[in-house]
Amino acid sequence: MKKAGIISVLRNENEEYKNLEEEHKRLEQSLKEMNKKKYLTPDDEIERKKIQKQKLQYKDRMARLVREYK
């Protein structure tokens, strides 16, 4: 099965994958909102980095679930 097919199956059958994907999208939206600002305070920069790291962790976990499904 190809990657797209596996992702489709996981979206429908794997609760963890669905939750990770939803959270990843939520974090992506938060980053987009943050990037609209002309200036980020030092605290904003720290928060932005935290969001980026968390988003990457979710993406890595989703990729691992896809690999494990194969």
Question: Which stretches of 5+ consecutive residues score pLDDT under 50?
Answer: none
| DSSP strand tally | 0
Number of structurally distinct domains? 1
Cα-atom Rg, whole angstroms?
A: 15 Å
Largest sheet, in brief, is: none
Give the mean pLDDT.
95
Q: Name the beta content range.
A: under 5%
Roughly what percent helix? Answer: over 70%
Shape field: elongated
**What order do the helices and strands follow?**
HHH
Helix run count: 3
Structural class: mainly alpha
Measured between the Cα atoms of the first and last residue, the distance is: 8 Å
Provide a descriptive summary of the structure in words:
This protein has one domain. It has three helices and no strands. It has helices at 3-13, 15-35, 42-69. Helix 1 (3-13) packs across helix 2 and helix 2 (15-35) runs antiparallel to helix 3 (42-69). The longest helix has 28 residues, at 42-69. The protein is elongated, with a radius of gyration of 15 Å. 6% of the residues are buried. The model has no long low-confidence stretch (mean pLDDT 95).
Task: Set down the secondary structure blueprint.
Blueprint: H1 3-13, H2 15-35, H3 42-69
Task: Describe the structure using short key phrases.
mainly alpha; elongated; 70 residues
